[in-house]
Amino acid sequence: MGSNSASFHFNDFNMPGILYLVPNLLGTADSANSHALTSVLPADVQALTARLDYFIAENAKTTRAFLKLINTAYPLNKPLQEIKIAELNVNTEERALPALLEPLLAGHDAGLISEAGVPAVADPGANLVRLAHQHEIQVRPLVGPSSLLLAVMSSGLNGQSFAFNGYLPTDAAQRIKRIKQLEDRSRQERQTQLLIETPYRNAAMLEALATACNAATLISVATDLTLANESIKTLTAGTWKSELDAGRVPDFHKKPTVFLLLAN
Fold first, then answer.
1. Which of 13, 65, 106, 157 is the most buried (most CB within 10 A)?
2. d(Cα 101, Cα 33) in Å, to the nearest integer?
3. DSSP assignment of 140-183, as one string?
4. Could you tell me which residues are beta bridge partners of residue 261?
């Protein structure tokens, strides 16, 4: 858990602070380009973020870069080196969570921030939010980009019923089995199925989807959402298979991508 020199003192007479769920960009941006923020984050969200001096972050380095970008339009309340950033990621043990809330219990507001997009969705922050509720700490979600919702919006697939399934198994046979299960569920419930993959395995994931799914099943690939090279394409599995066989692979290597499928 990384942090700098800022410290907080618990006081039984303090009202708890507010835990703000702060959205982040969906990818890296030029630190001199404040427009990268204004196009996806409301001004009020940026201004509120600038006044916080304690963050619980999935990645401290990414958070510092984000705060530098915020600072171009809304000066930070404190110098960046004086802002406390505690890390909460997949390696954080459950027993470490209470300590992250101590500043809030002492009356300080805090921001929970993911490495990209909204916190507590496909993100380890959900456990901390639940603990905050248990301690009667007010939780306030702020408006910002969600790659999952943006992908559903732009896919043309069923937006009335959809499910996010996270990562699929890395073993090829198990991955195919899981895809078939999701396709069956989609067909039975008319439900769009969403999943993500480690960006360097995007090509393998699309190949598996195109191969395992019925030719008529719709597959949407949404890459670099909100970024300059954004790409969204929805085709049938059969058409995707033909595209891949012809060597026409999407430009999505090492780029954040959301995959969606809807069976007929």
1. 157
2. 33
3. EEPP---HHHHHHHHH-S-SSSEEEEEEPPSSHHHHHHHHHHHH
4. 193, 219
